[in-house]
Amino acid sequence: MEPIPFRLPALQQYLERRHGAPIAVDEVRELGSSASGETALKQFGYGRPLLVTYRLLGTRDATQRHQEVIHSIKRTPFG
How far is it between the farthest Cα atoms of the chain? Predict the structure, then answer.
């Protein structure tokens, strides 16, 4: 299986669109593994979930860290 190309700027843009505010990504880790950063992003392309830790900038809670699990879904003939 070929990995889905995925980079940190794409992840940051996705989260900024969801929250409607700029964000700062503090950490990206493969869930259940010690892989982090670009290595974890590469594993995401193979369908492995990522734990993303980030902060919303320009808001009252700019120092509060948020965490989300991001997961890609393997394409099938149905979509």
Answer: 44
